[in-house]
């Protein structure tokens, strides 16, 4: 896919993964988590259509690694995989957030989602659950969400 719907690209984040990160917020999310910190991200139309090349160029900061967030980048998995593949070719460490669990993504056998997983170093999975909200957790909002080193999963 040559374009993606993106809400914003945020530079120099320290809360969306380890180290200094550029965060790409993809539009669209089918999970509709109660208490979501960004319900505007649910609607795919709220994003701007941007070429994959423009996204990559804006995200290529030599000082930062990359986080794919949203919305849910796996909702636009074909475009997100294209972005991730190009950023990975530049040596970027990539984190991704999704409301699906890793088990669901693997069971779905969606070729674009599986391709995106190949480029992800760390996956934060699972829906935000308001009843399990925990402000003391690093890099996630609720206790059910997991931080998964993908090299351990895909080998």
TrEMBL record:
Catalytic reaction(s) noted: glycyl-[protein] + reduced [flavodoxin] + S-adenosyl-L-methionine = glycin-2-yl radical-[protein] + semiquinone [flavodoxin] + 5'-deoxyadenosine + L-methionine + H(+)
Keywords: 4Fe-4S, Iron, Iron-sulfur, Metal-binding, Oxidoreductase, S-adenosyl-L-methionine
Gene3D superfamilies xrefs: Aldolase class I (3.20.20.70)
Entry EC number(s): 1.97.1.-
GO molecular function: 4 iron, 4 sulfur cluster binding; [formate-C-acetyltransferase]-activating enzyme activity; metal ion binding; ribonucleoside-diphosphate reductase activity, thioredoxin disulfide as acceptor
UniProt-listed SUPFAM superfamilies: Radical SAM enzymes (SSF102114)
Cofactor section: [4Fe-4S] cluster
Domain of life: Bacteria
Record function comment: Activation of anaerobic ribonucleoside-triphosphate reductase under anaerobic conditions by generation of an organic free radical, using S-adenosylmethionine and reduced flavodoxin as cosubstrates to produce 5'-deoxy-adenosine.
Homology family: Belongs to the organic radical-activating enzymes family.
Name recorded for this polypeptide: Anaerobic ribonucleoside-triphosphate reductase-activating protein
